[in-house]
Amino acid sequence: MPWIQKEIRLNERKRGCHLVHKEIVGQLPELKNLKVGMANVFLQHTSASLMINENYDSDVQKDMEMGLNKIVPESFPYVHTAEGPDDMPGHLKSGIVGVSLNIPITNGKLNLGTWQGQNLLV
Fold it and tell me: Which residue spans within the chain are E strands per DSSP?
């Protein structure tokens, strides 16, 4: 069974929750050669995170950002502030949401549900 390890780069984005599924898959043409497998997508960042969520209605990304900002407010008196007021909330969101996804590969494609896509939270 073949193994593939590849580092990809996502385009820089402003703060928020962004659907990045097409950008990720577009950088992995090797997927089409795999009948069965698992894709581990790992984000090398400490104040951003990855999640699987709805890919159809962009209001979901807006609501996700609003909800997480309510749970992890910038106005909290954080001690770690050297990199700006949004840095420590980003670390907390990353810890809560996570930085990796495991997605089954079936017949050359990521086997996600009809309404599922990979989202980047920055």
Answer: 17-19, 36-42, 49-54, 100-106, 109-110, 116-121
